[in-house]
Design a protein that fits this description.
The chain has a seven-stranded mixed sheet, with helices on both faces. β6 and β7 form a beta hairpin. It has eleven helices and nine strands. Helices cover 40% and strands 18% of the residues. The longest helix is centred in the N-terminal third of the chain and has 37 residues. The structure holds adenosine-5'-[phenylalaninyl-phosphate] (FA5).
Length: 356
C-alpha cells in the first residue's frame, strides 16, 4: 500500500484480485495439485497477498476499518472458493493421469488362483461311495472310533482267543483290555442293530486303527461298512449291490469276483476282488500278476451276531461288507504307495480336484 487510506487499500485489493484471476486463468485448463497449492500459499498463506491486505488494515483509521474489512473478507472468500474449485479439478486431473497410465481392461482374464486347495483323495472317494449308496437306498450312519471290546469283537462273534485281539493288531486304550481303537467299522453293525429294528440298510464310513505299517498298510486307515438286514436276503443280493457300486466307480467293463474267506461275524464269508484297474485282468505289477485286486471282506451275517443283538435269526438274514476306502482311492487315482495318503504332501494333494 502506498499510503494508509481506505482508497489505497481498495485499490490494492482490486489489484490482488486481478492478479489472482490471471493466475487462475493460467492454470485452470490443467490444474495440478502442486500448482494449486502454490497458488493457495501465494494468496492465503501466512505471508500471502490476501494476508498482507489484512495486515495493512491495522494502519487504517479506526472508522475506515469495518468497510475495509468487509472488502478484504469478500476477496478472501472469492479466493478460497476459487481454490476449492481448482482442488477438485486437480484431483480429477490426477485420477485421469493414473487411468491413462494403466488403462483398466475389464475384458482381461482374471489371474488364476494357484493356492485354492483341493479335496483329499480319501474325501473324494468317500463322497463318491456315499453318493452311490444313497442312490441304492442306504442310510449313512456314524459310530465311535474308541469303543468297547464288546462292539468291536465279542458281539461280532470273535472268540476270546481270536488273533485279532492280539496286541499286534489292536490298540488297547485301557489296561483291562475293555476299550479299544476300533480295528474295523464292523462295530457299527452292532450299534446300528441294537438301536434299530429290521429291516435295515446302512452304510458307515470312518477311521479305523491297527498296529500295522508297510507299503499297503497304515496304522490309521478308512473303511466303509455296509449291511442289509431283512427277510429273505441272499448272497445274490450282496453280489448285486457290490457289483453295482464298484462298476459305478471304476467302469462298467470291469469284472468282480468273490473268493471264500473267514471272518467270525459272517457265514459264509468271502473277499471281494475287482479286475485290476491298471491292466484290466492281464496281470501287472499292481495286481502282482494276478489280474485281480482285493477290495475288502463280505459275507452273510452270522446267526451269533443276530443273537447278540436279539434279532430273530430264523426270520431275518442279512449281508455285510467292509472295504478299505484308502485302497479304493489308490486304485481310482493310480496311487502306488498308501503312505502318501497320510503325509500331507502339498504337491501330491494339489493334483486332486477341488470339487467332488
Ligand atoms: C475287515 O476289517 C472286516 N471287518 C471286513 C468285513 C466287513 C468282512 C463285513 C465281512 C463283513 P479286513 O481286515 O480284510 O476285513 O479289512 C478290510 C479292508 O480294509 C482290506 O481289504 C483293506 O482294503 C483295508 N485294510 C485293512 N487293513 C489295512 C491297513 N492297515 N491299512 C490300509 N487298509 C487296510
Amino acid at each position: 500500500m502506498t499510503d494508509n487510506t481506505i482508497a489505497s487499500l481498495e485499490k490494492e485489493a482490486t489489484s490482488v484480485e486481478n492478479q489472482f484471476q490471471s493466475n487462475v486463468a493460467n492454470i485452470t485448463a490443467n490444474p495440478t495439485p502442486k500448482s494449486v497449492d502454490e497458488l493457495r500459499i501465494a494468496y492465503l498463506g501466512r505471508k500471502g497477498k490476501v494476508s498482507a491486505l489484512m495486515e495493512g488494515m491495522r494502519h487504517l483509521a479506526k472508522e475506515d476499518r469495518p468497510a475495509a474489512g468487509k472488502a478484504v473478507n469478500n476477496l478472501r472468500q472469492k479466493v478460497e472458493s476459487a481454490i476449492e474449485d481448482l482442488i477438485i479439478k486437480a484431483n480429477e486431473w490426477q485420477l485421469q493421469q493414473k487411468l491413462n497410465q494403466s488403462p483398466l481392461d475389464v475384458t482381461l482374464p482374471v489371474k488364476t488362483q494357484t493356492n485354492t486347495g483341493s479335496l483329499h483323495p480319501v474325501t473324494l472317494m468317500r463322497r463318491t461311495l456315499l453318493r452311490e449308496f444313497r442312490r441304492l437306498g442306504f442310510t449313512v450312519v456314524d459310530g465311535p472310533e474308541v469303543d468297547l471290546d464288546f462292539y468291536n469283537f465279542s458281539a461280532l462273534n470273535f472268540k476270546d482267543d481270536h488273533p485279532a485281539r492280539d496286541m499286534q493288531d489292536t490298540f488297547f486304550i485301557d489296561g483291562r483290555d475293555k476299550t479299544v481303537l476300533r480295528t474295523h467299522t464292523s462295530n457299527i453293525q452292532i450299534h446300528a442293530m441294537l438301536e434299530n429294528s429290521p429291516p435295515l440298510r446302512v452304510v458307515a464310513p470312518g477311521r479305523t486303527y491297527r498296529c500295522d505299517s508297510d507299503l499297503t498298510h497304515t496304522p490309521m486307515f478308512h473303511q466303509i461298512e455296509g449291511f442289509i438286514v431283512d427277510e429273505r436276503i441272499t448272497m445274490g443280493d450282496m453280489k448285486g449291490v457290490i457289483d453295482k457300486f464298484l462298476k459305478a466307480i471304476y467302469g462298467e467293463d470291469l469284472s468282480t469276483r468273490v473268493r471264500p474267506s473267514y471272518f467270525p461275524f459272517v457265514e459264509p464269508g468271502g473277499e471281494f476282488d475287482l479286475q485290476c484297474v491298471k491292466c484290466r485282468g492281464k496281470g501287472c505289477r499292481i495286481c502282482s500278476k494276478t489280474g485281480w485286486l482285493e477290495i475288502g471282506g463280505m459275507g452273510m451275517i452270522h446267526p451269533n451276531v443276530f443273537e447278540a443283538v436279539s434279532y430273530d435269526s430264523e426270520k431275518y438274514t442279512g449281508f455285510a461288507f467292509g472295504f478299505g476306502i484308502d485302497r479304493l482311492a489308490m486304485l481310482k487315482y493310480g496311487v502306488t504307495d498308501l503312505r502318501l495318503m497320510f503325509e500331507g504332501n502339498k504337491q501330491f494333494l494339489s493334483q486332486f480336484p477341488i470339487h467332488s
